[in-house]
Amino acid sequence: MPAMIFLNLPVSDVEVSKTFFEKLGYASNPQFSDDRTACVVISDTIFVMLLEKSRFKDFTKKDVADAETTAEALICLNAESRTAVDELVDAALAAGGSPALAPQDHGFMYQRSFLDPDHHQWEIMWMDPAAVAGQS
Question: What angle do CA 57, 59, 62 make, to 5 degrees?
Fold first, then answer.
């Protein structure tokens, strides 16, 4: 069984964040959602748990980072093509996200980024399969 990733993110408004990710084409799993939590299914092995900030705090003794002013993590997802990178980032921007950095095009790798409604930074990238295999 492959390892699963459950990325937990603090959010100001669970419903706003859930709706944002649904507009990007991701489904929510109601089995693991309630009025303070939403489980967004990215793939069979990747899930994003959107936790109201007070609920997020139940899982840590640390201060919760303010993603508007502090970067604690950069979340990077791969895409199947350069076009898929553009489609997902354009959908994020249309759904209320904002641009993070300028696109990066290295020929063998293409990347764009956006900030979600709570300012978490998402990197969407495509890499040439030949480059991954060490053939370029």
Answer: 60
pTM above 0.70, yes or no: yes
DSSP structural state of residue 31: G
Question: For the domain bounded by 1-59, which CATH number is listed?
Answer: 3.10.180.10
Considering just the CA atoms, what is the radius of gyration of the chain in Å?
16
| CA 93 centroid distance within chain | 13
| pLDDT, mean of each 10-residue run, the chain (136 residues) | 93 97 96 96 97 96 93 94 98 98 96 97 94 68
Q: Which CATH number fits domain 68-136: 2.70.98.70, 3.10.180.10, 3.30.230.10, 3.20.20.370?
A: 3.10.180.10
CB contact burial 34-45 (16+ within 10 A = b; e otherwise): eeebbbbebeee
Residue 17: phi and psi, rounded to 5, are -65, -45
